[in-house]
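Standup notes
- DV: blocked on the single-chain target, sequence here:
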Amino acid sequence: RPPSFFGFLTMPALMEKTTELVALLRSIHANGAIILAVIGVFHGGAALFHHVVLKDNTLKRMWPPRRT
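- DV (later): unblocked, structure below
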C-alpha cells in the first residue's frame, strides 16, 4: 500500500517491493539501530569516565545550568 500523509497526499512507489529488497532494508535498519545503541553506550561511558576517573568538569559542563 502506498504511503499516505493524513489521507491527503499519496506518494507513488519509488521501486518495486521484492523480498530481497525487504531483507536488505531490514538488515540495514537493524544494524543501524545496534550501531546507534553502541555509540550511545560509549558516549555515556566516556562522560562517566571523565566525571569519576579523571574528575574534570566535562559532565558538569554538559549538564543544564541550575536555576536559582
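- Follow-up: DSSP finds two helices and two strands in the chain.
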